[in-house]
TrEMBL record:
Species whose genome carries this gene: Streptomyces galbus
Assigned protein family: Belongs to the 5-formyltetrahydrofolate cyclo-ligase family.
Enzyme nomenclature, EC number: 6.3.3.2
InterPro entries, per database record: FTHF_cligase (IPR002698), FTHF_cligase-like_sf (IPR024185), NagB/RpiA_transferase-like (IPR037171)
Lineage: Bacteria, Bacillati, Actinomycetota, Actinomycetes, Kitasatosporales
Name of the protein described by the UniProt record: 5-formyltetrahydrofolate cyclo-ligase
Binding residues annotated for ATP, in chain numbering: 13-17, 146-154
Length: 208
């Protein structure tokens, strides 16, 4: 953790992460598949995604809200979909999604295996050209504050977008039970614009 003045918020986040992951781990493969289809359907109703030329996304693993149905639907619409490749320092490089056959399973040390794009690497700054950035997470609260997985990769992405003056729509994909009243946030945390769950889309007040 590279946060300064860690303490309350960090340990609260760790506890919450464990709780949300425990609930996800009870989902069956059928639950995940059905949710993924519903998620894709609702996500495509979001005007930002419907009109996006370039979407930075990710490939879900395990019981995470499924993204493949959405990636394929975006691609079928002609959107360019960028997927992350984890770098040794936890930063993210990007590659274009060219269908399920264009993914390779990559084991990162003792951490989870991720599915990454096999094609050319476009560099960490490729994300600054996205119209929409889909963020993984474990929860989002009424203010649009996102509880991330704790790896810090997306903090790097958000900081890079800010430095570049890029203003993509930030959208988090979650299960319904993960939209909560409050998650601990730190001053540098940025709210997301919308959350998509299997039951629909929710936008956050005060966001365009």
């Amino acid at each position: 953790m590279h946060h300064h003045g860690t303490g309350g918020a960090e340990s609260d986040k760790r506890t919450l992460r464990r709780e949300f992951l425990a609930v996800r781990n009870m989902l069956t493969a059928d639950d995940v598949r059905e949710s993924a289809l519903a998620l894709a359907e609702h996500a495509l109703e979001l005007p930002e995604l419907a009109h996006a030329h370039t979407v930075a996304a990710y490939v879900s693993v395990g019981t995470e809200p499924g993204t493949l149905a959405l990636l394929d639907a975006l691609r079928a619409r002609g959107a360019r979909v960028l997927l992350p490749a984890l770098l040794p320092d936890n930063d993210l490089d990007w590659g274009a999604y060219a269908g399920e056959g264009s993914l390779a399973r990559v084991q990162h040390g003792g951490r989870m295996a991720l599915f990454e794009p096999v094609g050319a690497r476009l560099g960490p700054d490729a994300v600054t050209g996205a119209d929409v950035v889909l963020l993984p997470g474990l929860a989002v609260d009424a203010r649009g504050m996102r509880l991330g997985r704790g790896g810090g990769s997306y903090d790097r992405v958000l900081a890079r977008l800010e430095r570049a003056g890029a203003r993509p729509a930030l959208v988090v994909l979650l299960y319904d039970s993960e939209v909560v009243e409050h998650v601990p946030a730190e001053p540098h945390d940025r709210p997301v614009h919308a959350v998509v769950t299997p039951s629909g889309v929710r936008r956050f007040a005060g966001r365009p």
